[in-house]
Structure formats: C-alpha cells, structure tokens
Specification:
InterPro entries: NfsB-like, Nitroreductase, Nitroreductase-like. The protein has 210 residues and is an alpha+beta fold. Helices cover 47% and strands 14% of the residues. The protein has helices at residues 2-10, 25-36, 55-64, 70-73, 88-102, 110-120, 125-149, 162-169, 203-206, and strands spanning 47-52, 76-83, 153-157, 176-185. It has a four-stranded antiparallel sheet with strand order 1-2-4-3, with helices on both faces. Helix 5 (88-102) packs antiparallel against helix 6 (110-120).
Length: 210
C-alpha cells in the first residue's frame, strides 16, 4: 500500500509531454488490460475505449479539446466513449458472455437479465446516457493507477467539445459519445507543474465518520 500511495503522490495531470518518448507496446498492453478489468455497474461496461494513433486525427481533435497541446504531444491519446443507444441486445450479449465464461446455461441467468433490463432500459434516455458516461470514470481510474505504477504520465480531460470529437471520429453512427479523454506519455522536463505540491483537502475536512 505504501507503494500505491507513493505512486499517487508522484502522478499529476501532466501539462506538457515529451513528444520524443513513446510508451512501449508491453506497457500499453498492461494499461489496456487494466482498463479491461475495470469495475462497472452490473459488470456491463457500456462503453468503448478508442486509442487514436493517427497523427492527422489527433491534430483535428486538438481544436475540439480547447487547443490543449497534450492531444498531439503525448505518446498516446485515449477516448472513452459511452454507449448512447443501450439496447436489450447489449444486455443479452453480456449474459451470453457470462454464460460462456462461467459455463452457466443462459436460461439460468434469465432472472438477472430481466432485472438489469428492468433497471436500465426503463430509464429516460438522458438519464441512461448519464449513467453509461459515469461508467467510463471507473475505467479511467484503473488507467490512472496502472499508469502511475509504470511511471507513465496521464492527463485526464473533460475540457473538450463532445459533439466535435464525435463528428471527427464518426462516433454517433456507432451509438457512442465522447465522455472522457486521456493523454498518456512522459512528462517534459520543462513542465513546471511536476514540481508543484499536490493540493488536496485534509483528512479532517474530507472524511465524515458516523
């Protein structure tokens, strides 16, 4: 646990990346697996994770992300896109996956499937889309923690115009919406932010014990 806390103190939202340094395939695969293993409500994972390697696409995305330099300078750009047209078939596919993974007949999972459908599919569309977007934050946290362990810097971003990013990547036709962006790489020595003390609420201010 001490190492985990050391990693949390080490990481920060990197403002300037060293564009000459690239993440190895091995480390990238570790991060992808950490994202894949993330928790989510019901285990449904109602989102896609898009790794944008094409430099031309990243240059197009930069203006939609308030011109932030990390979009083009970081080693990798990751888009978390929540599903905005979650359907009954999506839940059925998940149940089939459970059946195959755990060697349980699909019929034995019908009650769980019906429960999920009754709780999710009956939500108003806007509420359902907010719910699927929230799930991406759980995946982002796994990314942040895994990257910190590998001493890879990450900048999580909410500063972008989703509609523009969606249009650039053609996400709407896939039933997806950009909910989060993360840039990964290695901090530039000229990034003064790395020397700032971490500012957080004190334990007394943050926690309430009842």
């Amino acid at each position: 646990m001490s190492t985990f806390l050391e990693n949390q103190n080490w990481r920060y939202a990197t403002k300037k990346f060293d564009a000459t340094k690239k993440i190895s395939n091995e480390d990238l695969n570790t991060i992808k697996e950490a994202i894949r293993l993330s928790s989510s409500s019901y285990g449904l994972q109602p989102y896609k994770v898009i790794i944008v390697e094409n430099p031309e696409l990243r240059a197009k995305i930069q203006p939609a992300a308030w011109g932030q330099s990390q979009i083009v300078e970081a080693s990798h750009l990751i888009i978390f896109a929540n599903e905005i047209q979650l359907k009954e078939q999506d839940i059925d596919n998940y149940v089939i996956n459970i059946s195959a993974t755990r060697n349980i007949p699909v019929e034995a999972l019908s009650g769980y499937a019906d429960f999920m459908k009754s709780k999710i599919l009956t939500l108003p569309e806007e509420t359902k889309n907010v719910w699927t977007a929230k799930q991406t934050y759980l995946a982002l946290e796994n990314l942040l923690n895994a990257a910190a362990e590998l001493k890879i810097d990450v900048t999580p971003m909410e500063g972008f115009i989703p509609e523009q990013v969606n249009e650039i990547l053609g996400l709407e036709k896939l039933g997806l919406n950009t909910s989060l962006i993360a840039t990964l790489g290695y901090r530039h020595e000229a990034d003064d932010t790395q020397h700032y003390k971490k500012v957080r609420k004190s334990e007394q201010e943050l926690f309430i014990t009842l």
